Amino acid sequence: MNDLKQKYLGQIADAADENALEAIRLAAVGKKGEVALKMRELGKMTPEERQVAGPALNALKDEINSALAAKKAGLADAALDARLREEWLDVTLPARGRRQGTIHPISQVSEEVTAIFAEMGFSVAEGPRIDTDWYNFDALNIPGHHPARAEMDTFYMHRAEGDNRPPHVLRTHTSPVQIRSMEAMGAPLRIICPGGVYRADYDQTHTPMFHQVEGLAIDKDISMAHLKWVLEEFVKSYFEVDGVDLRFRASHFPFTEPSAEVDIRCSWEGGTLKVGEGDDWLEILGSGMVHPNVLKAGGIDPEAWQGFAFGMGIDRIAMLKYGVPDLRAFFDSDLRWLRHYGFSALDQPNLHGGLSR
Ligand code: 2U9
Asked: Could you tell which of 182, 253, 264 is best to mutate to test the pocket of ligand 1, judged by most ligand atoms within 8 Å of the CB?
């Protein structure tokens, strides 16, 4: 009996895992195990022998079962310890930084411009990018023979044979929105129209899609003087300078009369633009008094109302403020300058297929 005890307690102590323990349990105290066999032999013993051997076998069985349970718990503890060591986690490590997206510079400048004009009482009007040639040209006093209407300069929408709808174009300026606003709201009116426009042009200073913001103020006695003040306030605020000289140069647009291109005083010292000082002049926008034909097209009586209008390229003024040399940088996946100005979200090769093309 003592041999049995030594044997099984020894095996239990050496068992490497739960499977080994189970095998020992079956061999020792299972239904057909060695202790059960010994119990069967009790019948052959004398009552005196049985009285000694019976309790001793039961005690042996209990002892083996307790040893098995203790070893099982020990193995489980050891397994948990090993797992905890394996899955160790340093909660004091600094968190991994998350890349953040940023607003596109065109959207940012568009918002800056909108905010400046909003302070002067202009609200924002928006309209379709595909519009009829009437809204895009005729209503703006651009006659049928005007070169701007040629397919060379304007993207016309394809029309199937037999389609009798008026020709549609990708708007070449945001002016159709202003005609629609005049129709919808009448006079007086003070709006700006920011948005994408399309022209068949592509070089260092032109992309087929670019962005404009146009402004329109219509009232009983609006003059070029109001126009000048509004533009001065805009330039000071946008370029963050206290004062600036504006120069109006006589020009011609079909939709304004008189018309003027507007330059601002600046210097280009060391290749950097400084607005408001120096001896250079920089053209930033076109403007004028709304042509009576345009007021009429928008359903406004030119005998009772007059107004000023202006238009500028958002991409262009973004380039000037942020020093972008080539307009194509905005649209052409050349992200070097964006990186230069800290637009780090765009600096992920896996997102954009690399930085050079
Ligand atoms: C209405 C009446 C008049 C908008 C105007 C300009 C002059 C102009 C250009 C600037 C650079 C276009 O983006 S650009 O290429 N625009 O010079 N735009 S006056 O005149 C309007 C608009 C709407 C109803």
From this structure: 253
